[in-house]
């Protein structure tokens, strides 16, 4: 009696093809940048046809968006793990903001997430930021205000300010000749910003 070998479902095959394309694109974008990465080379690395790339992602830009979503999810997981390391929610919030700056030295995050994604995806990258980072910052600020840990301020506006400051600082670190020194300066500046939010900080006259 012949062994019964279960066939992979169509959904499993689709998922496998998509994963191979994303992995190949991620390697290419990190090494060569978006502009320097050829679709034929990505497809060859993934072992699929160009038609498969167009079918699943619509083209090179859609593939970049998938890579960005994957990196964003990994960053979020690292931030969540850092948050859980702290018993105090305010200290956890501060630590997560500092960790985001530290990740600006990662070559893949620099090239793919901070530079190429912003220039190529434009508004879609902004929308991703609105749906993830800014929502998480806003919700954390709201909880901290309700707990009396930080000063009362519009949480949506403050989330926009903090996120914008962190992203710009990350880009500044990535472009610096001495990234370690730039990171230390940015971390010190971020501490000052966080001090201003803390409950009991003097109000502006």
Task: Give a description of the structure.
The chain is an all-alpha fold and 205 residues long. It is built from ten helices and no strands. The chain has helices spanning 10-36, 39-46, 50-57, 60-84, 89-102, 107-121, 123-131, 133-146, 155-175, 179-197.
Low-confidence stretches: 1-5
Which range does the strand content fall in? under 5%
Order of helices and strands: HHHHHHHHHH
Shape annotation: elongated
Count of strand segments: 0
| Fraction in helix | over 70%
Main sheet record:
none
Short note summarizing the structure:
The chain has 205 residues and is mostly helical.
Lay out the secondary structure.
Blueprint (H helix, E strand, L loop, with lengths): L9 H27 L2 H8 L3 H8 L2 H25 L4 H14 L4 H15 L1 H9 L1 H14 L8 H21 L3 H19 L8
List its salient traits.
elongated, mainly alpha, single chain, 78% helix, 205 residues
